Amino acid sequence: MCVAIALTLLLSDWIGNRWLAAATALALLLPALVYHVQRAFAPMNALFRALAGSVASYRDGDYSFGLSWHGRGELRELVDSHNALGDALRDQRLALVQRELLLDTMVQNTPVAMVLVDPSRHVVHANIAARKMLGDGHRLEGQTFDDLLARAPDAVRDAFERGGDGMFTVGDEDHEDIYHLSRRQFRLNGRRHELVLLRQLTAELRRQEVQTWKKVIRVISHELNNSLAPIASLAHSGAELLRRGQHDKLPTALATIEDRARHLEGFIRDYARFAKLPSPRLEPIGWAHFLAQLRSQVAFEFDERTYGGDGGDGSARVDTAQLEQGLLNLLKNAHESGSPEHEVKLGLRRAPDAWRIDVLDRGTGMNEAVLANALLPFYSTKRNGTGLGLALAREIAEAHGGRIALLNREGGGLCVSMVLPD
Questions:
Q1: Which PROSITE patterns would you find in this protein's record (predicted)?
Q2: CATH code for 110-200?
Q3: Taking the CB of residue 165, how many other CB atoms lie within 10 A of it?
Q4: What mean pLDDT is predicted for residues 122-138?
Q5: Could you tell me whether strands 166-171 and 176-188 are parallel, antiparallel, or unpaired per DSSP bridges?
Q6: Cβ-based neighbours of 317, under 8 Å, separated by 6 or more
Q7: Residue 265 pLDDT level (bands cut at 50, 70, 90)
Q8: For residue 246, what are the CA distances in angstroms to 236, 315, 389?
Q9: The dihedral formed by the CA atoms of 366, 369, 373 and 375, expressed in degrees to the nearest 10
Q10: How far apart are CA 376 and CA 131, in angstroms?
C-alpha cells in the first residue's frame, strides 16, 4: 500500500515537470513564432493597405499610379485586375477632360454670346463674346443678370423686356449692329436654368441685302431692256416711215410703242406698290358685295356647296383695296397656270376667329423647290414674270395679321389659302 502511494507521487512529479518544461519552451518560442508569422504576412498586409489606398484615390479621382506584386496565384490576378481597372478609369478620365477642354474651347471662341443664368438670376457661365458685349471684356460669373441688363444699351433691355426670341439693333445709322436674341430654359442638376444666346447678324444680313439688290437690279434691267429695245427700234422705224412718206404704217408702230410703254409703266407701278405698301386701313365689308366687285374684274367660279355658304352673309374688317389687289394677283396666277377657266375657283369659309379664302385651279401645280420659294420677292418661274404677285399677296395677308400658304391639290392644280383674322 505504501509502495503504491510512493509510485503515484513520483509519477505525478514527473508529469508535472514535463508540462512545466513544455510550457516554458512554448513561452520561449512564441515570440519568435509570432515574429516569423508577421514577417511572412507583411508583404500581403502591405498589399492590402496599398489596395485600400488606391481605392480611396480612385474615389477622389486620382488614377495616376498602379500596384506591383511579384508573387503568383490569386493575389497576382487581383493586382492585375486592379491595375487594369485603374488604366481604364485613367483613359476615361483623360478622354472626358479632352472633351471638356474641346467643348470649352468651342464655347469660348464662338462668335455667339452665351450666358447661363441660374434660378437666382446670377450668371453661372459666360463666354468671351458675352464678356465683350455685356461686361467690357470682364468676367461676368457671379454677377446678377439684371445688373448686366441695367448697364446694357436700351435696345438690349427692350429686347429682353419683350420676352421670347427676336431681333434688335444697337448703335446709330453709321455704326449699327443687328442681333438675334434666343432664350432657352432647361433643368440642370434639378434646378431650372436659362441659356441666353445673342448672335450678331449684321454681316450676314448685309450680304443677303446685297444679293437681294443684285437680283432686283437684274430683274429691273431685264424688264427695261425688253421694253426699251423695241421702243427704240420702233421709234427709229417710225422716223424712217415719216421720211419715206409711208404714213399708213405709222399707227401700228405707235400702237406697239404705246403697248410697251404701258407695260413698263405697270411694271414700275407694281414694284412701287410692293416697296411702299402702307399699313392697312381696316373697314367693315360685306363679302357678297366684295366678291361681286372682284368678279367684275376677273373671272372665277364660286361654289357654295363645295367651299362653304358664308360668302353671301358674312362680313369682315379689311383694307378693301389691298385685299382686292392681293386676290387679283392670285386669281391672275390661277388663270396663267394652264387651268381651264371654269376650274379657277374662289372659296370662302368661316374658321375659328378668322376667315379663310382659297384660290384654286387645275393647272400644273408646283414642285417642291418652287413651293419652297414661290412666296419670296422676285422669285418667278415665268419667262416675263416679276416675282411680285405672290409676294405682294403675302405682304397684304401678313399686314392684316394673317398668313398665306400654297398646297398642291389632289388630281392636279394648286390651292392658295389666305387666312385673315376676324
A1: HIS_KIN
A2: 3.30.450.20
A3: 12
A4: 89
A5: antiparallel
A6: 282, 283, 284, 285, 422
A7: confident
A8: 14, 59, 42
A9: 20
A10: 38
Give 358-386 pLDDT, tens digit per residue: 999 998 888 887 777 777 666 666 655 66
**Pair 93, 61: CB distance under 8 Å:** yes
Judged against a pLDDT cut of 70, whether residue 19 lies above it is answered with: no
Asked whether 180 and 172 are in contact (CB, 8 A), the reply is no
Class of 283-421 in CATH: alpha beta
Q: Which three cell numbers stand for residue 112?
A: 455667339
Tell me: pLDDT of 5 over 80: no
Q: Out of 25-39, 118-132, 227-241, 256-270, which region has the weakest mean confidence (pLDDT)?
A: 25-39
Per-residue pLDDT band for 225 (boundaries 50, 70, 90) equals: confident
Given a cut of 80, is residue 204 above it in pLDDT? no
- Residues 104-128 have a mean pLDDT of 90
* Cβ contact 183:165 at 8 Å: yes
